[in-house]
Amino acid sequence: MRATARARANIALVKYWGKADAGLNVPAVGSLSITLDSLHSETSVEFEPTLECDTLTLDGQADAAALERVTACVDLLRESAGIATRVRVVSRNNFPTGAGLASSASGFAALVAAGAAALDLSISPQALSILARRGSGSAARSIFGGYVEMHAGSRDDGSDSFAEPLLEAAAWPLRVVIAITSRDRKRVGSTAAMGVTAATSPYYPAWLATSAADIDSAKSAIGDRNVAALGAIAESSCLKMHALAMSSSPPIIYWNSATIACIDAVRALRNDGVGVFFTIDAGPQVKAVCVTEDAATVADVLREIPGVVDVIETGLGAGVEIC
Ligand code: PMV
Questions:
Q1: Is ligand 1 within 6 A of the CB of residue 12?
Q2: Domain 175-315 architecture
């Protein structure tokens, strides 16, 4: 009744933003991501008959806010197994939690994989992806490694809203250089921000209308192993997502001045012939994606930018695994 799983964070190159069904956590648009090797969550789940309620320890501390979401996800596993036993969940991230580094993606992917293993449920990776999605939309993608596509799906019950692997990490081993510009937790969580955006941004209909074409372009760029083409679509998708947030009422701005300085630096590197592009999730950190040979140059440049407090370099990694 106990298992531990490790799942890695992922970053979307074509972003998900907005929900078709908030209750089932079905995204309004598909997305496309890369799974990162060095950023992981390790989560132990123990079903313990003597417990009166679920407990969660996250990075060494009880976390009541996250516990609600964990319980909702574990309830789905309990339902499949036909049990009501409470769980003790202990999870640790080897990177800052809740700061726009996809800790909910790796965390929920590890949670459902460990929970299913603890209960000995025989469950397909696709079904695991659906379960992870209920915890966090981006977690559906962290079940898989390398390049991953998330389908928004069209069924009312969310049964066709899951991720699937597109290409193994080793087939095109890009590197990601992450500039940490703040270690603070983000002020507006992505679920709340998506709700405000969908309700108030005048650009939301255009976002919905252009997402499928963005995914198609990104898939062709990956097929051609074309960094410039993938970068053009990834930067466009990222800037569209942040433009949605900024054009909401009240406006949501995730960036700080170092975020913008990093964007400028990536564009300057590109003008100098370095094949690099940026993406930014719901936080101020900038992820620069490039080929292996350019990673040291990119890291050196980002490290020197005032306001950058740390630089993490990583390759692409595997999907969730039971430890
Ligand atoms: O998985 P969530 O619900 O925390 O939302 C993630 C949203 C973005 O990271 C900004 C975009 C994405 O596709 O991962």
A1: yes
A2: 2-Layer Sandwich (3.30)
CATH fold of 2-168, please?
Ribosomal Protein S5; domain 2 (3.30.230)
Question: In the chain, where does the domain assigned CATH 3.30.70.890 lie?
Answer: 175-315
Cβ atoms of residues 58 and 185 within 8 Å: no
Task: Please report the DSSP string for 116-130 in residue order.
Answer: HHHTT----HHHHHH
What pLDDT tens digit does each residue of the chain (323 aa) get? 999 999 999 999 999 999 999 999 999 999 999 999 999 999 999 999 999 999 999 999 998 889 999 999 999 999 999 999 999 999 999 987 766 677 899 999 999 999 999 999 999 999 999 999 999 999 999 999 999 999 999 999 999 999 999 999 999 999 999 999 998 877 788 999 999 999 999 999 999 999 999 999 999 999 999 999 999 999 999 999 999 999 999 999 999 999 999 999 999 999 999 999 999 999 999 999 999 999 999 999 999 999 999 999 999 999 999 99
193 lines ligand 1 (CB under 6 A): no
The Cα 111–Cα 105 span in angstroms is: 10
17 C-alpha vs ligand 1 centroid, how far in Å?
7
Residues of the chain with CATH 3.30.230.10: 2-168
142 Cβ inside 6 Å of ligand 1: no
